[in-house]
User: Fold these one by one.
Assistant:
Number 1:
Amino acid sequence: MFLRSFGRCLALVAVLAVPATLSAQQGSKIGYINSRAVLLATPGYAQAESTYNTELAGFRDEVEKLQNSLDSMAADFEQKSVMLSATAKSAKRKEIDDRRGKLEARAQELRDKAAQREQELIAPIHSKVNEAIEGIRADGGYAIIFDVGANDGLIVTADKSLDLTQKVIDKVKAKP
């Protein structure tokens, strides 16, 4: 645990040393945003997230039903296995294994479908937000803009005057 914390401290020093050097040498500015706050304020994000969560719940329900069916089949087999012949036990185990394979394949298919759907719903929003961030970076002469919501809190504290979150939100909301 200590080594992980120490490693994060070293990474923080390394990350902050580069912008400080840039700022001192080139007069460049540094800023930061909270991407989660930006996304929550972006028009269309709440609807996209709601749609995704609804579809994901449907995928989860389907997998849960398949799992319950498999569990029921396995429990039934356990109860009746003492009365089955070796051939019948083997056939039932194969049937359970086949169903388990189908369940795993369907679960993977649904995970892939969910990832694709998330990309379809969120990618245009991310693109819009990234354009706004890049515009603010270019217009404001910022060398680097950090995201305080990313990387498990790599940025521990920062000067509030460097917070560009509201500027990004305003720019995103201004774009049609």
Note: The chain is about 75% helix and 5% strand.
Number 2:
Amino acid sequence: MDRISHHDRNTEKFEPPIGELAAKLHFEPTSEGLFVEAFTHSSYANEHRIASNERLEFLGDSVMGLVVCEFLYRKFPDSEEGKLSKLKSILVSAGVLASFSKQMGLDPYLRLGQGELKTNGRGKLNILADLFEAFVGAYFLNFGFEATRGFILPLIRQALPEVVAETKLIDAKSSLQELLQARGLKPEYRTISESGPPHDRWFTVEVYCNEKLLGTGTGRTLKEAQNQAARVGMERIKS
């Protein structure tokens, strides 16, 4: 599909104020139309018969992947491919990319169709993650790789400590699984309790093997609680 023409943009019901965003983020676009396209979700594009941000998302995904891979390669010179892959998978996950969109204040400029507006599309992780990748694609086409790398790296560095902590939790759960499987056994996770309002849930999980309690964990998500329980279980088995 052709990029949005000047005439098409002028006839839209919502024109993202790219100049306002550019001033906030301190950049001067060479092609403002690419950024308009980056903020155009497919639901809006289908309603108005214009280009969506999917092509820019495709490009931005590859640019983001390269920046992340180079960063991790240089940051962890002694790490094997497996660890680097785990770190990368989290750094380019929908949750992290969506947080980048929110952190940069991209979400208010997103153009959504009526259906997505009614279902809070502006708050959906996948839509926000795709938006960030599309923005990266537009930024790359405007300013080139080095400049794009320069704006992505601070976001990656800020997210890294939490990402590293998450990989350690994942390693604990995987290690427990592998240890028990080697003995012909497998762990069983049981959710003991859930508390708190919907926006601030707290989970307690126990992990068992052959009905023997190995460990208990808590967390704000079920996954986090399971990982904490697995870590306690590993420590108990090794002691």
Note: Strands lie at 188-195, 202-209, 212-219.
Number 3:
Amino acid sequence: MNIAIFADIHGRILLCFKLCERWQRETGEQLDLVLQAGDLGVFPDVSRLDKATIRHTQDDPSELGFTHDFAEHKSDVAEELAKTAFPLIFVRGNHEDQEWLDALEQKSDAPIFAIDPYERIFCLKTGVPYTFNRGGEAITIVGIGRVAAPRGEQKPDKPKYIQPHELERLYSLGKVDFDILLTHDSAIDSVTKGFGMEEIRLVLDAYEPVYHFHGHTEEPLTRREDRNGTTVVYKMADLHWDKTSRGKPLEPGAMGILRWKDRSSYTFEVVNQPWLKEYTASTWRYIP
């Protein structure tokens, strides 16, 4: 199976689908799944934007992509989505409407739940393994959403921080095998001393998945060998514009492709083809 990987999208969800459809056309292959590592930018109501998102939307309206394209059914968006068939599964970042997602999660007993009227975008619950099957092949994913409260935080119960019931699920995982760890935050101390989530570190040490994909750290594309000796860690670049270049093209390293058969047969590559440069801040919506 073919799986596209993205990290921080910050509202550019339709762009994500357009890039995946373009990859299919260029390669002649089909994508089966998209995994996204948080900060999808889920804000169905602009009155509930957080301060950082409000600030960014003043320069770039594409930050409001969920509000404009996915909060309500729109025929032009449905037409664009109909060009592909794969689901997009994400974990929560720290820039989402957490209370709105909480309400949807509480209504679902499944590991994933739909958040859009087209039923193409699904949130993966923290600490609940999910197995995706396609064509006789299977891959199991565990997600850890939100971020850790910084040391000394006076309000560690803020919705953007990992919640007690999610921690309880992680500590109750028990004996389970999974292939991919999908998180927004990084493991504690893996990028910057004193920053990151301790539970991500514990999961990596205990379960040794094949890959760990995460976002949040504002690094460019980064590849690391985890200290557990098994897991390869990728921090994908944010899906946003290089404002230092003329035309504001996409920054490189924002999209990857995992080709997966089983734990003994897989490859991962970063998409860096010339056609990506066509998708600039001013042109991406108009590219068929």
Note: The chain has a mean pLDDT of 95.
